[in-house]
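A brief tutorial aside. Many learners find it easier to grasp structure tokens once they have seen a single protein encoded end to end. The record that follows does exactly this for AlpA family phage regulatory protein. Read the sequence first, then the structure, and try to relate runs of similar tokens to stretches of the chain.
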Amino acid sequence: MKTIMKRQDVVAATGLCYTSIYNKEKAGEFPARRKLSARSVGWIRQEVEAWIEGLQRVEQVAQA
């Protein structure tokens, strides 16, 4: 089952400010938000977690 993360959850999980998330999303460097209602958006938790894991793998390779 897909779990939705709200903006404050994504900010907390990534450590990025909302503007950075928005900019990365527009550049295709971050998972796309999903429209939940006329005034609400969210991100799929599994996609955000996969993005975070990808960063961790890049850091591990860079340290090797």
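Self-check: The chain has one domain: 4-63. If you spotted this yourself, you are ready for the next section.
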